[in-house]
Write a structure and sequence with these properties.
This protein has about 500 residues and is of the alpha/beta class. Helix content is about 40%, strand content about 15%. The strands form three sheets. A seven-stranded parallel sheet has the order 9-8-7-10-11-12-13. It is globular. About 40% of the residues are buried.
């Protein structure tokens, strides 16, 4: 049996795969193709799913269609291989999951799939929409030699994509950037003093703040100095933190206004004073502006390396004016720019003009021990009046227009009209709170919208477990895009479709 897991939409190319499979008698293998996935948003009338269901009914020996289940692990355990015919993919988590389950993989050689599958080692790649290439790959993966590739894939997944492996790569990356050829295996070597400048840091809410806090913990103890914003609750948080945290009033009102010039002055003044009393090996900046520009000045005055994080959305959202040119200057003059995705790396090179040799990849990681399926969540659903038979769509993030939470709300009346008893819950706050609420009221679905605001850290993984589907359909608004949505990884870790 061969498995397909994914949203049933044209991008996944499942229709072509299923039609080729039944037309060519499973390419002579006798294998059953099992497709597991929810209806895609690009198939609003359900035509694709209806076509696939008819195909499964007409060819039961060759093709089977199942609705999506929250826990797909049992499917991985009962099949022989995974096939993913998508002609456009980011970084397909299903391939990582299948490899971790010890399955060989077949995929179209497109986008992120080719970054995960080592052709001829952990599976086979074929040219998109190439019938002969697909046939050869399927026949090859179902031979004894092909099946043995699954064990190699599992080794790769464990060594490359586990939290421990990702953490080790981060440590090695920083060791290289800071002049240490190798990580410190025995931890006996004196730790390097580092300066981290970031407006976003816990207890500020958001995935970026969480990522920076985790990075700083991994980098060291009190020798890591963090210059960041003063926020409510920071005193209690800082008291128990292993790093040395310096808080400033960083409220801003606009770029290059007197108030924001004062923000730059405060960041620069505190950072430079620290740099004169501590011989920092590097100044790390959470963003290009304002932190990156401050880090560059500090680095040049004190002779330390400058490392700037690039997230993606900031690269395309500032037009081509003074702010954009200043951002480009900071990024081009950094010693190293950390890119969180291939999209960010490519944009840094093509749009910003950063040399490829000065870009290092630093993919975000999710804590799979914290974000995992099976957490108790019935009380959360009951707390907002969701019955067991009702469906819940969850969104997590700042309520702002580019997140497109309003588009999820606009979809609710159509779903209800089709007999789907669905509600939408949003975790987060933001400037679009009233707007999203108004859209729901105008469409007559206000009773199906639940604005949860901030939730307790321990409750966030439970909210992922409480939902049936995670949704954040971002849109590009004059270049304002989503860089790398960590919430997608969190939802995936909780075995939720997104």
């Amino acid at each position: 049996m061969v498995l397909f897991v994914g949203v049933l939409d044209p991008r996944k190319n499942i229709r072509w795969l299923a039609e080729q499979w039944v037309a060519h008698d499973a390419f002579g293998t006798g294998a059953l193709l099992l497709a597991v996935g929810p209806q895609g948003r690009d198939d609003p009338d359900g035509r694709l799913r209806t076509h696939l269901a008819a195909l499964a009914q007409a060819h039961p020996r060759h093709f089977m269609l199942h609705d999506f289940h929250a826990d797909v692990a049992p499917y991985y355990r009962c099949v022989d291989a995974l096939v993913l015919p998508s002609y456009k993919e980011g970084l397909p988590n299903v391939v990582l999951e299948a490899m971790a389950a010890g399955l060989p993989c077949v995929a179209a050689c497109a986008s992120g799939s080719r970054e995960l599958i080592d052709d001829g080692v952990t599976g086979y790649l074929y040219p998109p929409d190439d019938e002969a290439g697909l046939a050869q790959a399927v026949r090859g993966v179902l031979t004894p030699a092909g099946m043995a590739m699954g064990a190699k894939g599992r080794q790769v997944a464990q060594s490359r994509n586990s939290i421990g492996a990702v953490a080790d790569r981060y440590e090695a990356l920083y060791a290289r950037l800071l002049g240490r050829p190798q990580p410190r295996p025995d931890r006996t070597e004196a730790p390097l003093p580092l300066l981290m400048i970031t407006e976003l840091f816990l207890p500020t809410k958001g995935g970026t703040a969480v990522m920076f806090e985790d990075d700083c913990r991994r980098l060291g103890g009190p020798e890591v100095h963090i210059v960041t914003a003063a926020v409510p609750g920071d005193a209690d948080f800082d008291a128990d933190h292993p790093n040395t945290i310096h808080r400033l009033n960083l409220q801003r009102y606009g770029w290059l206004r007197p108030e924001s010039l004062a923000l730059y002055a405060r960041l620069f003044g505190r950072s430079l004073r620290l740099a004169f009393t501590n011989r920092f090996a590097a100044a790390l900046a959470g963003r290009a502006l304002p932190e990156g520009l401050v880090a560059w000045v500090v680095g040049r005055l004190r002779g330390c390396r400058v490392v700037i994080y690039a997230h993606g959305e900031e690269l395309t959202g500032w037009g081509r004016g003074h702010k954009f040119r200043t951002m480009c200057f900071a990024l081009r003059h950094a010693d190293v720019v950390l890119a969180n995705s291939d999209f960010t790396r490519d944009t840094l090179v093509s749009l910003i003009g950063v040399g490829p040799d000065r870009i290092a990849m630093a993919y975000p990681v999710v804590d799979a021990e914290r974000f995992r399926p099976g957490l108790p969540c019935d009380d959360l659903r009951a707390g907002i009046g969701i019955m067991p038979a009702q469906k819940l769509i969850l969104s997590v993030g700042r309520l702002q227009r580019r997140k497109s939470f309003d588009q999820v709300v606009r979809a609710l009346p159509g779903l209800v009209a089709r007999g789907i008893d669905v509600h939408h819950a949003i975790v987060g706050i933001g400037e679009d709170w009233d707007y999203v609420e108004r859209v729901a009221t105008e469409l007559g679905v206000r009773d199906r919208l639940h604005l949860l605001g901030h939730v307790a850290p321990d409750d966030l993984p439970r909210w992922y477990n409480a939902c049936d589907l995670f949704a954040m359909p971002n849109r590009d608004i004059e270049g304002d895009t989503e860089g790398f949505g960590i919430v997608y990884l969190e939802a995936n870790a909780c075995a939720k479709p997104a």
